[in-house]
Structure of 6-phospho-beta-glucosidase:
Amino acid sequence: MKNIPKDFLWGASTSAYQVEGAWDADGKGPSVQDVKSGGFIAGLNIKDITDFKVAADHYNHWKEDVALMAEMGFKSYRFSINWTRIYPTGVETTPNEKGIKFYHDLIDELIKNKIEPLVTIHHFDLPNYLEEQGGWNNKELAVEAYVKYATTLFNEYKTKVKYWQTINEQNMVIMFGHLLGKRMTGVDKGEESYQMFHNMNIAQAKAILALRTIDKDAKIGPAPNISLVYPETSKPEDVLAAHNANLIRNWIYIDPFVKGEYDQILLNFWKENNYNIQMTSEEMDLFKKAKIDFIAFNYYSSMTVKAPTKDQDFVVGDQQMGFNLEGMFQSAKNSNLEKTEYGWEVDPIGFRLTARALHDRYNLPIVITENGLGAKDVLTDDGKIHDDYRIDYLRKHIEQIPDIINDGVKLFGYNPWSAIDLVSTHQGISKRYGFVYVNRDEFDLKDMKRYRKDSFYWYKKVISSNGTDLD
Ligand code: BGP
């Protein structure tokens, strides 16, 4: 049995718009997340949940927050840079110096505490100005803006940042864009969704190539949300549907940067549906050169599907609850798995299987950049948070790590969601994930005081024992 390597990157994760707040401070422009208003997401009226304007106020508490991470013994911290702090509309020619400085200070503080920064370039917070110009469907504008932004980050933070992630959950942006403040309304937008998919791929390829000329030692990879897809039964039709779903949900987002091309089944799917995706041979050539160094992936649960039927009776929820694709697959419940109070299936063995499947297909180093349990935590009168349910969830997943490594998967880190409490993408601040409790409610900002949860002390022990003490 192989042990977890000594330099394994134990840490945790956040994203800028969910944790920082200070939404219009120091020259920051509005992102699509800042202007969300009205409507329903995941069955909730977003008027009933907080917006992202103050979030966990990390922008004003970052030093204290890094100190808490250091106290837990973090070896890494996965966070994202807020695009509109650097380029308020996306189209400026010079970056906003105050935004640049904020991340220099944060990164320096992490390095001082021996915490490796794992930086996501773009996590769901497209500049709203770009969105108004067509967003990712405006190929020329969006690609140019992203590459300029990424290049600015590489030049600024080179040598300090060794691990870059291009885009968080590109697959969720394409499939569940309507939940993420984009104009897109998921795969049912068909051609438009896949054009956006291709445009984002070009942007990532160009950024990967730019990094090679700016910082030869830095590593870069995508950060998709990967869930291995199971067939509901052993019926060959269901197995075929699972194969389709694995491809459409997971692999097409990594293939171009490893295999250098799009999968034939995807190309056939476009053809059968008369999707005319604008792509040139020069663009496709980019994928022959723009290779990734590692795969960062977010894992919350597996997914189960069956052969598609005409009525597609599965009701689509949020990003983790499955979806249907006409002619390809239809989501199904997995009766073998328990669910969280937010309806997400819990599948630690699926974590091992997903890691194995990624290894089989790509044979690249892998790092976990999200995994975790959203729950309604309670702060007791004596300032405690007894989140044994979170410990239980994390323990079951961490228990898989030695097996995953023993399977031959090159897993080099585990960064669950989230380092501290932050605002959930869909369910406000009431759905908490952090090791640290942030004292605010949905609409009452209270004092933003930080409290260590039971999971904080537990995770500290997990890290100091390099994953051997999980009690
Ligand atoms: C992932 C996103 C994160 C985070 C997480 C939890 O899809 O990358 O940004 O939001 O899911 O999801 P939620 O906030 O909906 O509970």
